[in-house]
Amino acid sequence: MYNTFKQMLLDAVAGFGAVALFLLRIFGQLPSALLRPRLIASQIHNAGALSLVIIMICGLFVGMVLGLQGYDMLERFGSESALGSAAALALVKELGPVVAALLFAGRAGTALASEIGLMRATDQLVAMEIMAVDPFRYVVAPRFIGGVVALPLLTMIFIAIGIFGVQLIGVQQLGVDQGTFWSQMRGSVEVEDVMQGLIKGCVFGVACSLIAVYEGYTAAPTAEGVGRATTRTVVNSAVITLILDYMITAVML
Q1: Span 210-240, pLDDT tens digits
Q2: Residue 172 — pLDDT band, cuts 50, 70, 90?
Q3: CA separation, residue 19 to residues 14, 15, 115, 175, 215 (Å)
Q4: For residues 105 and 209, is the Cβ–Cβ distance under 8 A?
Q5: Which range marks the domain in which residue 106 is found?
Q6: Integer CA distances (angstroms), 26 to 1, 15, 34, 123, 144, in order
Q7: What are the pLDDT digits (tens) for 124-160?
Q8: Angle, nearest 10°, between helix axes 52-75 and 141-167?
């Protein structure tokens, strides 16, 4: 039992070190990658614009459910007028960044991992290395930058659509006064709350994008290896997102 735990701990430390070195290699190629704005814009489109539909649909229904549940809970205390502020704080500080990151990992993260993993399986990365073309500069770094830029934007869109969903249920269906709804929200949500959500979106973007490109780049060059890399991308991104969410919240509070 002790030896098994020790081996698991050593494997975890070795994996963390490998990811850290991988990130340093990406940072080394960022200046060169940023000189190719068209490639960066293409990757932002792939990671962000193609994820927009699922982000908007999920944001709307998360906001609608939050409106129903929040109204039911607040009504028990006679505070249903505070629905706007309670829902906005929940979306801005927690639900928006976390759910957007999980959706991003499930859509864009798996796409990045499978794309790079397929390039590994078909020896495209090896061919680039033979021709003295650095895969980190042309393949890994642009996709990493695209994910890092896209997720904070998707987070803000998710929050905005979620608030609209809360307003749709709370004001239009349940009869909460519209003026009270928006005034309570404006009075409760501060700049620090918005910054906390934006910081979480940026951190989650770095983490999820890093995991996706790392798993794809280090995938075994087989169909099974690409499938496992895709699965690990979703699982590891979800776990790391929740861990980082707790750490950021603890530090900021």
Answers
A1: 999 999 999 888 888 898 999 999 999 999 9
A2: confident
A3: 9, 6, 19, 51, 9
A4: no
A5: 37-252
A6: 38, 17, 12, 21, 8
A7: 888 888 888 888 888 899 999 999 999 999 999 999 9
A8: 40
- Give the integer Cα–Cα distance in Å for 47 and 233: 15
Q: What's the total number of domains in the chain?
A: 1
Ramachandran angles phi, psi of 25, nearest 5°: -65, -40
Question: How far apart, in whole angstroms, are the C-alpha atoms of residue 12 and residue 91?
Answer: 33
| Residue 12 counted as domain residue | no
Could you report the per-residue pLDDT of 94-114, keeping only the tens digit for each?
999 999 999 999 999 999 999
Q: Considering the domain boundaries, does residue 28 fall inside one?
A: no
Report if residue 73 sits inside a domain.
Answer: yes
Q: 247 in a domain, yes or no?
A: yes
Identify the CA nearest to 170 among candidates 58, 55, 65, 59. Answer: 65
How far is residue 112 CA from its own chain's centroid? 13
In contact, 241 and 204? CB cutoff 8 Å: yes
Residue 239: CB atoms within 10 Å? 11
Collapsing DSSP to helix, strand or coil, 229 comes out as helix
With CA atoms as reference, report the closest residue to 116 among 142, 87, 86, 82. 142
